[in-house]
Amino acid sequence: MLRKKEGNNIAQIQYTFNKNDEYYTPSYAIYPIMKKLKQQATIWCPFDTEDSQFVKVLKDNNFDVIYGHINTGQDFFKVEVPICDYIISNPPYSLKGDVFKRLYDIGKPFAMLINFQGIFDNKERFEMFKNNKVELLWLSPRVNYIKSGEYKASGVPFQSGYLCSGILNKQLEFEYLDKKQ
After folding, report:
1. 63 touches 88 (CB < 8 A)
2. What are the E-state strand segments in the chain?
3. Could you tell me the end-to-end alpha-carbon distance of the chain, in angstroms, rounded to an integer?
4. What is the CATH number of domain 2-176?
5. How far apart are CA 72 and CA 70, in angstroms?
6. Hey, CA dihedral for 31, 168, 93, 140, is it positive or negative?
7. pLDDT (tens digit per residue) in 34-52
8. In this structure, how many other beta carbons lie within 10 angstroms of the beta carbon of residue 131?
9. Which of 78, 164, 168, 171 is buried most, with the most CB atoms less than 10 Å from its CB?
10. Pairing of strands 160-165, 110-115
11. 6 band by pLDDT with thresholds 50, 70 and 90
12. Cα(67)–Cα(74) distance, rounded to whole angstroms?
């Protein structure tokens, strides 16, 4: 359970699998953020399984990777944070506000690949990003995610990139994707 304070009451939110949150990241979308990391760093991928492209690409490029996923019993909101240099993943979009709150509470450099549409529209998120270090790595062209249960990448109607803290040199950076990687 994620405990979320609402006024003087504490509401409990059950973190459960949401099929609409399962969009798999193609390998080419990992290379832009990988270029920004210290070599041979330890990375925690808290929303990934061993079959994740984040895990595979980072390991293949000499990073030490720790991973976990709600389907294998590792709830990001409950699990003890492993010793790591960075937290990197593609989080469940339906929980984005709660994910970023926990990331800021943890205090480690992070990069989350997300849909940028509406990310600053929510007042609570707006204030959170306004009051914390936030960086954006804008990717072009759009990432073609792989939907759960499908075998081919599909176009998406949204622009995505990495929302980061403590990783980029500037608050806004741009990267072209090489979709052949």
Report:
1. no
2. 2-6, 9-13, 23-24, 42-45, 64-67, 86-89, 110-115, 135-140, 146-147, 160-165, 172-176
3. 38
4. 3.40.50.150
5. 5
6. negative
7. 999 999 999 999 999 999 9
8. 9
9. 164
10. antiparallel
11. very low
12. 9
- State how far the Cα of 169 lies from the Cα of 56, in Å rounded to an integer: 26
pLDDT at 78 over 60: yes
Residues 6+ positions from 149 with CB-CB distance below 8 Å: none
d(CA 108, CA 104): 7
Helices (H), 61-136: 96-106, 123-130
Residue ranges per domain, the chain?
2-176
73 φ, ψ to 5°? 90, 5
Which amino acid appears at position 154 of this protein?
S
Helix (H, G, I), strand (E, B) or coil at 78: coil
Q: pTM for the whole thing? A: 0.85
Report whether pLDDT(33) > 90: yes
CB 167 within 8 A of CB 88: no
Structure token digits, residue 152: 């081919």
